[in-house]
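Late entry, written up from scratch paper. The run itself happened at the end of the previous shift, but nothing got recorded in the book at the time, so transcribing now.
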Amino acid sequence: MRLGRTGKRGVVGFILLCAVWIAVACSPAPIYTSTRGERPVRRPSTATTPGKPPTTQQDSFRKGQILYGEASFYGPGFHGNLTANGETYDQNAMTCAHKTLPFGTMLKVTYLDSRKSVIVRVNDRGPYKKGRIIDLSVEAARRIGMTEAGTGTVSAEIISLGEG
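Output as recorded:
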């Protein structure tokens, strides 16, 4: 089979598209260390204290710790899909996604523009957009006045740590 000039370009374009897709799919997820004026949130997972076994990633978080950074929300396109902990995502529930906090962790999230706060539970992983620390449900974003802007700077205080 002979390919014309445009046929060869189409094949080359397809190969390049596949190469870019593979490169993007294989890239590591971003690491979030958004804090202001305090030590980074993420510490090495092999840190030890004399007489204590190595800690895990979850041990680097503590009750009362405040995380600062950009938040977003995930909307109707995800409603009804499974979350990372196996629950069905409900856009009307007071939940959120965080990259590393244990499932079941309760956070007090304050949208700094409006000074409004909500309590949310971590039940999913994400966000996967660079520079963001948390993805809120639609209802949580609505209650703090963030839906129109789509994203915003928040503080997220750890009220209680989940079991995993």
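The helical segments are 5-25, 138-143.
(Scratch paper discarded after transcription.)
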